[in-house]
Design brief:
Number of strands: 10
Distance between the termini: 33 Å
Strand order of the largest sheet: 1-2-3-4-5-6-7-10
Helix content: 10-25%
Number of domains: 1
Largest sheet: 8 strands, antiparallel, barrel
Number of helices: 3
Structural class: mainly beta
Radius of gyration: 17 Å
């Protein structure tokens, strides 16, 4: 199973806006893929992070909803930023920049969940070049309160409880 949505937000790579909408796909196998929310023809860059679960964004813990929370993931390789396909689309050639650390910050507001992901890749490679310069990135997306049930595939009962928690603990506007 997976959780998929397109959200308002931004993808900034090396200080330049790459997209003003964000596509997020969280796989139950333990990873997330994040890219531009527009059609594939605009941006062909995809960030993959593993390990990752929906519970790194979704919570029903009042303290975490009130104060926010974050994760810092680091390791030999915790993902990659890929760009492609390069050249002819059928060739399947990609530039890949490995990711060794990333920070994920989550804040619950009165009508939205704001997720910010920051990191820097290592130098990358592609079939056409080696030593591709690293990227620094900031990705932010907002899951509106009205989008929570569909994105996280919540039952009506759970969703009602989540809305009550939002109303009680997430007074920030």
């Amino acid at each position: 199973m997976y959780y998929k949505g397109k959200f308002a937000g931004s993808i900034i790579i090396n200080g330049k806006v790459d997209s003003d909408t964000v596509s997020v796909v969280i796989f139950e196998s333990g990873s997330v893929q994040i890219g531009a929310g527009q059609s594939q023809s605009f941006s062909r860059k995809t960030l993959t992070i593993s390990p990752f679960t929906k519970y790194m964004i979704f919570t029903q813990d009042p303290k975490r909803m009130t104060e926010g929370f974050y994760y810092e993931i680091s390791g030999t390789e915790v993902g990659a930023y890929s760009e492609g396909p390069l050249g002819h689309p059928g060739d399947g050639e990609f530039a890949v920049r490995p990711l060794r650390s990333v920070r994920i910050t989550v804040e619950y507001w009165s009508e939205t969940i704001v997720t910010t992901i920051t990191g820097k890749t290592d130098e990358g490679s592609s079939p056409f070049a080696s030593g591709i310069l690293p990227w620094e990135f900031v990705i932010q997306f907002e899951i509106k309160k009205t989008e929570i049930q569909e994105f996280f595939k919540l039952s009506d009962f759970v969703c009602e409880n989540v809305y009550k928690l939002f109303d009680k603990y997430c007074a920030r506007a």
